[in-house]
Amino acid sequence: MAFKFNWPDFTTEFVEQAKQLLTTALNKSNKPANIVDHIVVKDLNMGTKPPELEIMEIGELAVDKFRGIFKLIYSGDAHLTLQTKVQANPMNSNKSDVSMYTRRGILAADQPLVVPMLLRLSNLKLRGIIVLVVSKQKGITLVFKNDPLEKVDISSTFDSISSIQRFLQTEIEKRLRIMFQEDLPSIVHQLSL
To answer: How far apart are CA 64 and CA 172, in angstroms?
Structure first.
């Protein structure tokens, strides 16, 4: 059985709290060595298209508690912008990418180059199985039973350097997979209280 629900205009308070929780989650684990500052969620837009949920099983249904298993599909217009600082090291980039920034293939620097970086995550596509528990006393618990990430578009300050763009795409996809499994359940729970 499937159903539709209204996707609200989320309040400024909700969005700010979600940004803070995401910022905390993004900074709690080890980051790649070339990220030299905190990762900050600068913009969070929940989009206008709701996820699709299909009921697969209802395990418990009471006045003050619900437990069910759902198939979730999301292909909406939500997006997220992150800001941090990175140590740019063109020596590690693909030679063809670096050659356009150097003269006769010579590149030298006497100190690290730290530059600001903006990342935008958009066109998120998810398909997963979730266990959802809603309790009046304990809030909402949402857990993915599988890796739901199918696709995400990553654009950044460094899109013109293909090796860095590929690295960012791979690294962010890997971190999103971990976040959906480990961090999202606690973020949803905290937002529900």
So the answer is: 38
CA distance 77 to 6: 15
The 3-state DSSP composition of the chain as helix, strand, coil percent (nearest 5) reads 30, 40, 30
Beta bridge partners, 60, equal: 67
Q: Mind listing the pLDDT tens digit for each residue in 120-141?
A: 999 999 999 999 999 988 889 9
Tokens linked to 3? 């159903």
Phi, psi of 174 (to 5 degrees): -65, -45
pTM of the model: 0.75
- How far is Cα 175 from Cα 183, in angstroms, rounded to an integer? 10
Specify whether the CB–CB gap between 25 and 179 falls below 8 A.
yes
**Computed from CA positions of residues 45, 192, 179, 128, in that sequence, does the dihedral angle turn out positive or negative?**
negative
8-state DSSP, 39 = -
